[in-house]
Amino acid sequence: MSDANTALPGLPARLEAVWLQSAQAGSPMPGEPALAERLAASRPAVREALVRLEERGYIRRRKGADTIINRRLLDVSARIDEQVDRSELIASTGRRASMVVVESRLDVPTSEERTQYELEPDSRLLRTTKVWFADDEPVIRANDSIVLPPGAAAQIDATRPVFDIAADVGVGPTEWEIVYPSATATSPRDARLLDLPEGHPALTMEVVGVARSGRTAYWASELHSTHNFQHTMIRLVRR
């Protein structure tokens, strides 16, 4: 059994597997003691993992009652309220994901960007445009701007996820993403990239990645095609 203050590696994933079995069977989640024994983890570690599972909308716990399972999640994929690589987002729908880097270049921030994102005077940027495909159908376009501190490597693998690049050669690991969703009509360029009619409605997300230090790690402008690709959000009802 693990130490009371730590969770075993992989505990959240193993707990999610228990949730899946219970949801498919239509049965309640086992209680904390049974889960601790089944998962070979301490009760505090299991309790913490259950809190995280509830925050993600999988369960609802009530003192003195069975844990309620959100079985509707069995039919949910492409969750945009959780931060994952865009390829993983596509793969969660059961479709084959691929990605093409349309453009990648080193740049300097504009004066407006320096002010808006509180950048250091000598900061540089890696700007990329990428398109993701689901079964060869273009579904996501992202314009990413990753903040590079002085002395960062000049040769950067732009095919990697934006938060991995930020962690390795940027300002550090990203802890939060602030997301501003909206909608727009596709521009001529985006219509070509996503193989859509010009002016076709699309979901947009303006994203700001925040590092542990509180500094801006990156920002991105995403365009998501809603044609044959459904996006989902899970919101907890506070009472």
**The CATH topology of the largest domain:** Chorismate lyase
Tally of domains? 2
- DSSP summary, beta strand count: 8
Task: Work out the radius of gyration.
Answer: 21 Å
Which whole number gives the mean pLDDT?
A: 88
Low-confidence stretches: 1-8
Write structural notes for this entry.
The chain has 239 residues and is an alpha+beta fold. It folds into 2 domains: 11-75, Winged helix-like DNA-binding domain superfamily/Winged helix DNA-binding domain (Arc Repressor Mutant, subunit A, Orthogonal Bundle); 86-224, Chorismate lyase-like (Chorismate lyase), CATH 3.40.1410.10. It has 7 helices and 8 strands. It has helices at 11-25, 32-39, 43-55, 86-91, 111-116, 162-169, 188-193; strands at 59-60, 68-69, 97-107, 124-134, 137-148, 174-185, 201-211, 216-225. The strands form 2 sheets. Strands 3-4-5-8-7-6 form a 6-stranded antiparallel beta sheet. A hairpin with a 2-residue loop joins strand 4 (124-134) and strand 5 (137-148). The radius of gyration is 21 Å and the shape is globular.
Keywords summarizing the entry:
239 residues; Arc Repressor Mutant, subunit A; Chorismate lyase; six-stranded antiparallel β-sheet; two-stranded antiparallel sheet; disordered N terminus
Fold blueprint:
Elements: H1 11-25, H2 32-39, H3 43-55, E1 59-60, E2 68-69, H4 86-91, E3 97-107, H5 111-116, E4 124-134, E5 137-148, H6 162-169, E6 174-185, H7 188-193, E7 201-211, E8 216-225
Antiparallel strand pairs: 1-2, 3-4, 4-5, 5-8, 6-7, 7-8
